[in-house]
Amino acid sequence: MEFFCYHRDRPSSVALRDELLEEHWSYMDRYSRQMIARGPTLAGDGDTPTGSVHIVDLPDPAAARVFAFDEPNYQAGVYRDVLLRRWRNALGRTMWDFPGGRTGGNRYLVLGLGAGQAADLAVPPDRDELIAYGPLLSDDGATWLGTAVLVRAPDPDKARAVLTPDRYADIEVHNWQFGGRPS
Hints:
Blueprint: E1 2-9, H1 14-19, H2 21-29, E2 35-42, E3 49-57, H3 61-69, H4 72-76, E4 79-87, E5 106-114, E6 130-137, E7 144-153, H5 156-160, E8 168-176
Antiparallel strand pairs: 1-3, 1-4, 2-3, 2-8, 4-6, 5-7, 5-8, 6-7
């Protein structure tokens, strides 16, 4: 089962986040084979972290909760909240398979928070700019709750346009970059 996990940073937690960086990476190293995508969301300056995205394949919702809540930054209070949902990998690949590579261009996390009937279940035709794409689902996988996308786009408006605007209660767009331990 695939899960989307978005830890949102607490204001003024950057110093603590930096202090725990090695602990965070060591924790994530334990999940390296299950990782579909990972990386920080960033403020408008492109440097200041605002959150941490992980899309991971785990056995069940209980394992996903352990993953999300045993994470060192969460345990230390870096994060203010966590969005944890089942997710379906509509592209069938990891971020490392993205044809556009790790760098170049602007990258975004686009979160469409559902309202009513499921939307955007089919992958858009221009999939070359999609890094990760799939629906957010209830723990049992039966109810659509939204859509989560990692995309390369020229600007936030073009990133937002990946989703059908009137089908969501809210659409968030966050600067995002490929994450993980530096090579």
